[in-house]
Amino acid sequence: MRQECKCHGMSGSCTVRTCWMRLPTFRTVGDFLKDRFDGASRVVYGNKGSNRASRVELHHLEPENPAHKPPSPHDLVYFEKSPNFCTYSGRTGTAGTAGRSCNSSSPALDGCELLCCGRGYRTRTQRVTERCNCTFHWCCHVSCLNCTNTQVLHECL
């Protein structure tokens, strides 16, 4: 959170100042968390010290890879690897990506290359009839035309 203030007084003389704490924008918080997520490291419980201490104390967490630095209080850490979301698993409850719609021209997360986990995708065309060119007539009536379009759909294998 950050502090914001507003001055009150004649001609902005700031004889009285009102301050409050304000949350950052949603985008700022999201970017901050994404940076932390991308830099997260896997840790294991260290076997140092007394067993009397809480097992989740920070100085008992050690990086899985000894070449990495120990986590700081501001680092994001995890204990277990994420399940493979590419394939179906009833045990972990992941549905996999087979059959998911994807965007063949996108390099982002919705793109077929990433979303289909390198397994490829099938392309099919489909005729779709939708309501279009709708107009509202005074009090309670909307009239539309039916438009038929051909859509190209991509689906993960």
TrEMBL record:
<dbReference type="GO" id="GO:0005615">
    <property type="term" value="C:extracellular space"/>
</dbReference>
<comment type="function">
    <text>Ligand for members of the frizzled family of seven transmembrane receptors.</text>
</comment>
<dbReference type="GO" id="GO:0005737">
    <property type="term" value="C:cytoplasm"/>
</dbReference>
<keyword id="KW-0272">Extracellular matrix</keyword>
<dbReference type="GO" id="GO:0021527">
    <property type="term" value="P:spinal cord association neuron differentiation"/>
</dbReference>
<dbReference type="GO" id="GO:0001658">
    <property type="term" value="P:branching involved in ureteric bud morphogenesis"/>
</dbReference>
<dbReference type="GO" id="GO:0010812">
    <property type="term" value="P:negative regulation of cell-substrate adhesion"/>
</dbReference>
<dbReference type="GO" id="GO:0009986">
    <property type="term" value="C:cell surface"/>
</dbReference>
<dbReference type="GO" id="GO:2000059">
    <property type="term" value="P:negative regulation of ubiquitin-dependent protein catabolic process"/>
</dbReference>
<dbReference type="InterPro" id="IPR005817">
    <property type="entry name" value="Wnt"/>
</dbReference>
<dbReference type="InterPro" id="IPR009139">
    <property type="entry name" value="Wnt1"/>
</dbReference>
<dbReference type="GO" id="GO:1902035">
    <property type="term" value="P:positive regulation of hematopoietic stem cell proliferation"/>
</dbReference>
<dbReference type="GO" id="GO:0021551">
    <property type="term" value="P:central nervous system morphogenesis"/>
</dbReference>
<dbReference type="GO" id="GO:0043568">
    <property type="term" value="P:positive regulation of insulin-like growth factor receptor signaling pathway"/>
</dbReference>
<dbReference type="GO" id="GO:0060061">
    <property type="term" value="P:Spemann organizer formation"/>
</dbReference>
<keyword id="KW-0879">Wnt signaling pathway</keyword>
<dbReference type="GO" id="GO:0045444">
    <property type="term" value="P:fat cell differentiation"/>
</dbReference>
<dbReference type="GO" id="GO:0048146">
    <property type="term" value="P:positive regulation of fibroblast proliferation"/>
</dbReference>
<dbReference type="GO" id="GO:1903377">
    <property type="term" value="P:negative regulation of oxidative stress-induced neuron intrinsic apoptotic signaling pathway"/>
</dbReference>
<dbReference type="GO" id="GO:0060348">
    <property type="term" value="P:bone development"/>
</dbReference>
<protein>
    <recommendedName>
        <fullName>Protein Wnt</fullName>
    </recommendedName>
</protein>
<dbReference type="GO" id="GO:2000773">
    <property type="term" value="P:negative regulation of cellular senescence"/>
</dbReference>
<keyword id="KW-0964">Secreted</keyword>
<dbReference type="GO" id="GO:0048664">
    <property type="term" value="P:neuron fate determination"/>
</dbReference>
<dbReference type="GO" id="GO:0021797">
    <property type="term" value="P:forebrain anterior/posterior pattern specification"/>
</dbReference>
<dbReference type="GO" id="GO:0030514">
    <property type="term" value="P:negative regulation of BMP signaling pathway"/>
</dbReference>
<dbReference type="GO" id="GO:0036520">
    <property type="term" value="P:astrocyte-dopaminergic neuron signaling"/>
</dbReference>
<comment type="similarity">
    <text>Belongs to the Wnt family.</text>
</comment>
<dbReference type="GO" id="GO:0042472">
    <property type="term" value="P:inner ear morphogenesis"/>
</dbReference>
<keyword id="KW-1015">Disulfide bond</keyword>
<dbReference type="GO" id="GO:1904948">
    <property type="term" value="P:midbrain dopaminergic neuron differentiation"/>
</dbReference>
<dbReference type="InterPro" id="IPR018161">
    <property type="entry name" value="Wnt_CS"/>
</dbReference>
<dbReference type="GO" id="GO:0019904">
    <property type="term" value="F:protein domain specific binding"/>
</dbReference>
<dbReference type="GO" id="GO:0042770">
    <property type="term" value="P:signal transduction in response to DNA damage"/>
</dbReference>
<dbReference type="GO" id="GO:0061184">
    <property type="term" value="P:positive regulation of dermatome development"/>
</dbReference>
<dbReference type="GO" id="GO:0021588">
    <property type="term" value="P:cerebellum formation"/>
</dbReference>
<dbReference type="GO" id="GO:0009611">
    <property type="term" value="P:response to wounding"/>
</dbReference>
<dbReference type="GO" id="GO:0033077">
    <property type="term" value="P:T cell differentiation in thymus"/>
</dbReference>
<dbReference type="GO" id="GO:0033278">
    <property type="term" value="P:cell proliferation in midbrain"/>
</dbReference>
<dbReference type="GO" id="GO:0071425">
    <property type="term" value="P:hematopoietic stem cell proliferation"/>
</dbReference>
<dbReference type="GO" id="GO:0005109">
    <property type="term" value="F:frizzled binding"/>
</dbReference>
<dbReference type="GO" id="GO:0007520">
    <property type="term" value="P:myoblast fusion"/>
</dbReference>
